[in-house]
Amino acid sequence: MKKLSLIVPMYNEEEMIPLFFEKINEVLSKIENYTKEIVCVNDGSKDKTLELLKQYKKNDNKIHIVSFSRNFGHEAAVAAGFNRALGDVMIVMDADLQDPPEVIFDLLKKYDEGYKIVNAKRVDRKSDSFLKRTTAEMYYKLIYKMSGKIKVPENVGNYRLMDREVVDKINALPEKNRVFRVLVPFAGYKTAVVEFVRAPRPKGESHYNYKSMFKLAGDSIVSSSVTPLKWPLKWSLGIGFLTCIGLLIDLILYICHLCIYKFMIQFNFGIFTIILFMFLCLSIILFAIGIIGEYLARIMIESQDRPVYIIEEELN
Ligand code: UDP
Ligand code: MG
Asked: How far apart are CA 156 and CA 183, in angstroms?
């Protein structure tokens, strides 16, 4: 019999744990032809998440606890789940039930049809705030546009099923900047999509503030595309072109000025226009340096070669 591993990153989810296990066990009990494992990755929670997990584990040997030495972040927790899970098939899902567990039936159905990756796509996220929805939409559109040949699908987060073969390939990738929604399409393989409506979080709050969302966006762009590095060249060509036209106009005006002095209107751009134009150019240059900095910072992190996470305790 094949083994199904659920990978569930958890950070300060003490309020959600009872609800989560109740719901997930209800769903898992209906799945018959798999043995099951729930890999709960405690991402350095400061509340009672770990204690609660240990308590639940006493009565449920499906639970496999991986506990970090500190908070390493959502993507690191998913990476640890993939590395430590023992299943032949793996499904990543959030602990807050925003990824509805019933979707697992659809994911497994597609898997049985022969797909090695099954993405769960959010078709409706009315449960998220307006700002979160809008920024998420912008994020997915931007990543989709920039990701070149390897398209990162829109509105697909971490909720997905993967065969062991794909997981092994992704685990073997050397990079430290691990954004799974970017790495999975890189791996390729036959992929199916199932759609779901994102549920509201029943308890607790989102751990993604705008700073962490920007970081995720930066990591996703840098790891999926080098297009931003080419922007400064395009801008410099654009500015160069505009300057040439400006100089040409200036020259023509000057010649006209010499020939028919009395009849020409004197063009005067004014010092403020020139200063503003210089500020515009300066801001473009600084932005370009900023982009290079973003890439450089990630190269630095890669070259430091530190582990993505540190496991303090593992109970299986
Ligand atoms: N999470 C994590 N580490 C973090 C932040 C979040 O493991 O540093 C987990 C969290 O417990 C949840 C999942 O990642 O299971 C998604 O987090 P959250 O619900 O806060 O994000 P949102 O759904 O708002 O994007
Ligand atoms: Mg959530």
From this structure: 13
Give the distance from CA 266 to its chain's centroid.
55
The Cα–Cα gap between 113 and 109 comes to 6
Nearest 5°: the CA angle 291, 294, 298 is 150
75 touches ligand 1 (CB under 6 Å)? no
Domain assignments of the chain as residue spans, ordered by start: 2-208+307-315, 227-304
Residue range 12-51, pLDDT digits in tens: 999 999 999 999 999 999 999 999 999 999 999 999 999 9
Give alpha helix (H) positions in 43-179. 49-59, 74-84, 103-112, 130-146, 164-171
**Cα angle 127, 199, 219; round to 5:** 80
Q: pTM for the whole thing?
A: 0.80
- Decide: 57 and 26 in contact? Cβ < 8 Å: no
The verdict on the CB of residue 11 being under 6 Å from ligand 1 is yes
Helix, strand and coil content of the chain, in percent to the nearest 5, comes to 50, 20, 30
Nearest residue (by CA) to ligand 1, atom 21, is 206
Best CATH choice for the domain 2-208+307-315 from the list 3.90.550.10, 1.10.10.60, 1.10.760.10, 3.40.640.10: 3.90.550.10
What's phi and psi for 183, nearest 5 deg?
Answer: -70, -35
Ligand 1 centroid, distance to 117 Cα (angstroms): 22
| Amino acid in position 6 | L
